[in-house]
Amino acid sequence: MQQSPSGDGSKAPRPQAPINIFRRLLLGRNVLNLCIILLLLTALYYLHTSPTPSKSTILSSATDKINNNNDAEDELASCKLHLSLAERAAKSAADSAALTNQVLESLADEIKDPSHHAEIIPCPAAPSCPECPTCHSCPTCPTCASCPVCAPAADPDTYGTHEKKWLTIGMPTVPRPENHLGETIDSWLKQLPLHAKDPLFDDVILVVMNVHGPGHKWFDEAKQKYTNSEKSRYIKFIMLENPLNDPTHGRQDKGDANHPGHRVRKQTRDISTVLSHSLGLSDFYFFTEDDMLLCPNALPSIQYMLGKAEKYKPNFMSIRASYGMNGIIIRDEDVKGFSEYLIQHQERRPPDHLVVEWFAGETLQSKSVKNSRSHFSFRYNILHHLGIVSTLRSEKSKSFPKCFEELGEPTLFKVEAFDYIKCRNDDISPCDVDENVKTPNVGWGMMCDSSLCFNSKNPNKL
Question: How far is CA 462 from the centre of its chain?
């Protein structure tokens, strides 16, 4: 018999098989332990047989859950936005309803209380309109447009309703012993219409510029008188605050009829300044001075000569209808250029000479500006000079042309005078146009009253 490895002669314990353990549990009636073992075995079996999810499956599942959460958050934000917009719309609707209710209540109060109605002002200036006896209803009645109270008020910034008018009258003014300025303004305004249906209504602007500065009482009186008058739409008052400097640096030379002294140079700069302030106001610009009355019925003659000149020579350059620096009409597109021409040549010639060389194209510079355009002469004088002293010459004159007296040499230079030989049956020259275009002379002298107009039987009578 072999010895045990221990050397003590005893036998080693034999390992027990699982079946033996199970038998002992049954024999020992240890049921609780058996149940526990069965449960453990069952759990081990299911763990062994069930599939284990891969990493990609786990990540995909987690990503889906995250995306679902994001979608839910987006839907929640969208709901909040729509809710906010709905709240704003509801508030706006409530405000509109409240405002509408206030307006309706106000109208109801006015209907109930006649004292809330607009004041009705009589319109005595329109007696020919019995169906429109008050200014409250004047705007609906064309005949009542002649009522100065009913007519629309002039906007001080635009001076009327037309964006660009037909005619600007530029009038520099200086202090004089007599109130010639007031008379001159009146002579223009009394020929301008109050009736809105008149073709000239709100289409003329008189630019009166005080080129002297403070101390011109006639200018101050005129401004006060006309600013709020029924014809305020036709007049614009300007105070020259920054006069242009004399290029001779203050030389006090007297000059003569053909060589301007310091006073005449100042007048040239003043005319240029009025031009620059009138740029773009109208289609045509009319030169005049503050001691030159517009002859009776002369405003229609301006319409007539401009229309006829446009018919004879479209895009003509100028028309001469008086003498001196008066009664000259140029186009708005030439206003800026001539204003600069005056400043450039003020030392060389007086302004009434410069204007002739300009529209007649007598220099290379003016010839390029003229560009073959015609300059016209109207047959009759349409301005009446107050007094006996020339503004430009500061000297007495024995006589000045009367209203609607024919204009010619030596009052005007030959190049600007009416051509009685070639145009004896016309009233503007040049008149070299086709017979189907030409129109006959109109007797403008017969339209003038006897107080100011030229009398052929007694030329000295005004």
Answer: 44
